[in-house]
Amino acid sequence: MIIGLAVLLSAEGFFAWRLYTLSGQQEQVKQDYTDINNITLGLMSVDNWKDKVANIVSHQVKHFKLTPKQKHSLQVEVEQIINALIDKAEALVNKPQKSLGAKIKQLAVKTFVKTDKIRAQVPTFARAIIAKVDNPKQKNQLSTLAMTKFNEAQHTGSLDSTHKANETLTEKMYRRYHVSSPDELDKQLSARLQIYRTDTFLYCFGMLICILIVLACWWFLRSRVDLHATLFIMSLLFAFILLSVGLTASMIEVDARIKSLDFVLLGEHVHFQNQVLFYESKSILGVVEVLFKQPAADSLAVGFLILCFSILFPVTKLTSTGIHLLSKRKLAENRIIKFFAFQSGKWSMADVIVIAILMTYIGLNGLLDSQLAALNIKTDDLTILTTNNTALQPGYIIFISFVLYGLILSTILKAITPYDAH
């Protein structure tokens, strides 16, 4: 039995180690994903907007083409301008002159320059001008000139304060994940997250199967009183593994993001996707660490209470149950040992923490769903789609399994103890 349970305990320990390791790796990859897709470096980045607007302007200028309707409107405008110039020139010619020389010049112009003939040629002039503008060679020259002026105006503006940090972060991520483009990085991160998510739950269920096998052993060996003490001590080792993973692995993950934002600017689509609004992932120990780092007294008090009643109390309880069962009567009947072995359960907040986390998840998930739903917009000019990826993590399943497993072990201890359980 000891050999079989030792092998099972080794498997439990391996599953626990893998779950803890993968949970940390998943959290790191998710944090990298959040950093590279954070809304402050995307939708809220001035430089990002500059780049997108520059691309649109460049495309619009380089691919500028007059439609027949635009050519007609431009033809009318050019003709009006030319006719206005002719009217101005004619007014100057017809202006009364005082000197003899000026009068002779005026007579010569009136004789040889026929404004009616010039006006008749205005449409031809206008078409020639439009043809010149619409010529590919001329359009390239105009495009180059326009883009030069645009780039000058762009560089004279102040750089976004996050520009340098964004470039450094991007280069760092490229080196870490061995990619060379944003699309490759996004695919790499998404693929890794999917693998980690699947593997962590597989190892989580592997740990639960080991616990069920231990409880099955209790059922089949319930009549073997001589094996109860050994079986109970082995069961405590399984409980310690559950507790260690339940305290250190991520329990809840809050992830709110704008999945897609698309709108039309200058006739072209501007698209942002996977803009992370908020992300946080914490274990119980992580929450305690954050609370202890806060300067406020109330945060320190809450951190101390969680540390005592949800971490130290369960550890002391498990240790005391083993001491009570294996020690001689004098130590087994010690008030402190008996208190932690049989009565500390009512003081432990482990079960309260489980319910609190579940209720927090339900409430927070509903709040995020309602708030993000209010951001969803779908029109011809603007489309916003949000998503809420908040979810309970395997650490929560392991911790709640520890709480239930601990209650079962307490019941078993009361049944098999050779001493007074009260």
Automatic annotation (TrEMBL):
| Leader peptide range in chain numbering | none
| Regions crossing the membrane | 200-221, 233-252, 300-326, 347-368, 396-416
Write the record's keywords in alphabetical order, separated by commas: Membrane, Transmembrane, Transmembrane helix
Q: Which domain of life is it from?
A: Bacteria
Q: Please give the InterPro entries that the UniProt record associates with this protein.
A: PqiA-like
Looking at the keywords, is Ribonucleoprotein present?
no
What is the name of the protein in this document?
Paraquat-inducible protein A
Q: Which organism is it from?
A: Mucilaginibacter corticis
